[in-house]
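Per your request, structure below.
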């Protein structure tokens, strides 16, 4: 299949169409400028070039693959006793996930099957800022978890996931046993804001060995350094494998920096997360 990058207007219908395009296999979405199109596209030239370059490396699933992946996904099976064990874990536990090209589809497949009983999940997805809220709502609609945009000072809650808002770094802060979010508009890192590395580094410092780090499909190196730092602080770290990644750039970079405990397929990640916390609850 031919890789597709969609250019969409930021309207309610345009945003819905953009998310639908991602569901149907588009590699990425770029917001159509709200000014005169030619001038606006000139200003967005660098972004568009980056998106097209990433698409040129992408592994595009066939319609049949997407169909069978969709119908084969089942919620992770977890007993009531296991739910209670996970619920008894210390509040310091947190999961951090980073993704770029191909990430919306990967995150959707993970969130559709995760149980609601997990520690809080923090997510950075490289996506056009104006589509972030719509993507967040889509994840929330399809998940047992409550998915919301990260907000300044938000106190993390079990069974909740927090998606970094567009154009802002999302960081974890710890005060005593209390974990909260803070947002920052400081300079881009690895050409991104929000940056996966900024989230991961803050999680390494604030949660240490209570953290789980997961780096999904994506172009470039964002998240590799932060994941290695998390692992160095005792966190359990995962990377999506090459065969299930749309672009294997970010996971490969993390592996090369010795930042990954386990490399597994996308469909294995939800079960691996749940099993990890069941084991943690028995320790």
């Amino acid at each position: 299949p031919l890789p597709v990058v969609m250019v969409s207007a930021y309207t309610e219908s345009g945003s819905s169409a953009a998310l639908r395009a991602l569901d149907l296999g588009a590699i990425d979405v770029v917001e159509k400028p709200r000014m005169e199109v030619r001038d606006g596209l000139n200003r967005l030239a660098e972004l568009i070039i980056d998106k097209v370059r990433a698409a040129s490396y992408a592994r595009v699933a066939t319609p049949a693959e997407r169909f069978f992946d969709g119908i084969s996904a089942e919620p992770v099976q977890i007993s009531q006793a296991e739910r209670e064990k996970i619920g008894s874990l210390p509040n310091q536990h947190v999961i951090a996930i980073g993704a770029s090209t191909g990430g919306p589809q990967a995150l959707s497949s993970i969130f559709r099957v995760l149980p609601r009983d997990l520690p809080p999940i923090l997510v950075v997805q490289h996506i056009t800022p104006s589509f972030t809220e719509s993507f967040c709502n889509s994840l929330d609609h399809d998940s047992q978890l409550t998915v919301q945009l990260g907000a300044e000072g938000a106190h993390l809650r079990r069974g909740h996931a927090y998606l970094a808002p567009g154009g802002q770094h999302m960081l974890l802060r710890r005060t005593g046993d209390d974990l909260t979010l803070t947002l920052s508009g400081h300079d881009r890192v690895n050409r991104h804001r929000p940056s996966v590395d900024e989230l991961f580094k803050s999680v390494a410092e604030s949660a240490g060995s209570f953290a789980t780090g997961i780096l999904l499909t994506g172009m470039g190196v964002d998240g590799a350094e932060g994941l290695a730092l998390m692992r160095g602080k005792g966190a359990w770290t995962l990377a999506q494998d090459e065969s299930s990644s749309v672009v294997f750039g970010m996971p490969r970079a993390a592996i090369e920096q010795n930042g990954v405990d386990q490399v597994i397929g996308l469909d294995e990640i939800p079960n691996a997360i749940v099993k990890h916390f069941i084991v943690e609850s028995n320790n």
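Residues 5-66 form one domain.

Regards,
D.
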